[in-house]
Structure prediction request, 167 residues.
Amino acid sequence: MKRSILAALLLPLLIGCSFEERQSGGIEDTAVTPEMGPRKEIIQPEGVARLPVFSSAVRSGDLIFLSGAIGAQPGVNPPQLVEGGVIPETHQTMENIITVLDAAGATLLDLIKCTVFLADISDYAAVNEAYVQYFPSDPPARSAVAGSGLALGARVEIECIAAVPEV
Prediction:
């Protein structure tokens, strides 16, 4: 019964669609050629802690996508969180974001969206207390979600998107 209903819903969508066999596959299909110019620029300022599986930020056109930042002390390897709990972690996280934005030629004013990940949703008010100090007016759009298992046992992680015209 469920399959016949699903088929009845999908059939009108498929009528008029054509399917073509893909001529080639793999990485070469998405390779950047010199004529196209780079599709992205990796932004990796020195001293900003990161794991080798991601870049601190990637710029594509007018957008800068910042990876999730945590309150890791700058220049410490292996990365270590600042001590003192979620408020100092939030402040260090924001300072780390500022460092990455600066390396990309941007500022906090260029942020358009942030996502805050909390190890414990009960830290929401404390994180807001620190976070709001960086945005006295017109903060970026923001979401906050609770999860578990943030990198290095962090209590807060923030990822952002900024918009800055290409130079």
In short: The first strand starts at residue 41 and ends at 43. The chain has one domain: 38-163. The helical segments are 2-14, 86-103, 124-131.
